[in-house]
Amino acid sequence: MVRSKKNRLAAVGLLLTLLVVSQLSRAEEKTDVGDRGMSDAFYIAIEPTLVSHFGDANDIAYIKSEVSVRVNNIEAKDFVNLHQPLIRDLLLTNFSVMTHEALNNRDKKEQFQKRLLTILKKELIKEGAQAASIENVLFTRFSVYQ
After folding, report:
1. pTM of this prediction?
2. Which helix (H) or strand (E) holds 18?
């Protein structure tokens, strides 16, 4: 009976050792993937909420929007956070030239998002190469008040 108890303890010890070794090898695999240049997506909220007017003097309306920028690496995340004032200015400037037609049409709104992405990259590339890592501009909340 003593012998079977020792065998069980040895078996449990062996299983625990195998489990730990397995977990360590998985952790090393994840580190290797990160070292090979695989990247994660980071979403950076442009804060505070953006409010802008648009339209002509006879038909003015307001946009209230929460915007996030998606980047593909940690350096680009830091870059976007550093340049948030410039990003806010570019977004607000472009919101003010929107039209009622663009706001009421899903395809035009998506085109506007793509245009914003192009503008951000073009202007931010002057500040650093990390601008190329900006992958998307997302409207996480978008309201129009007339």
Report:
1. 0.70
2. helix 2-35
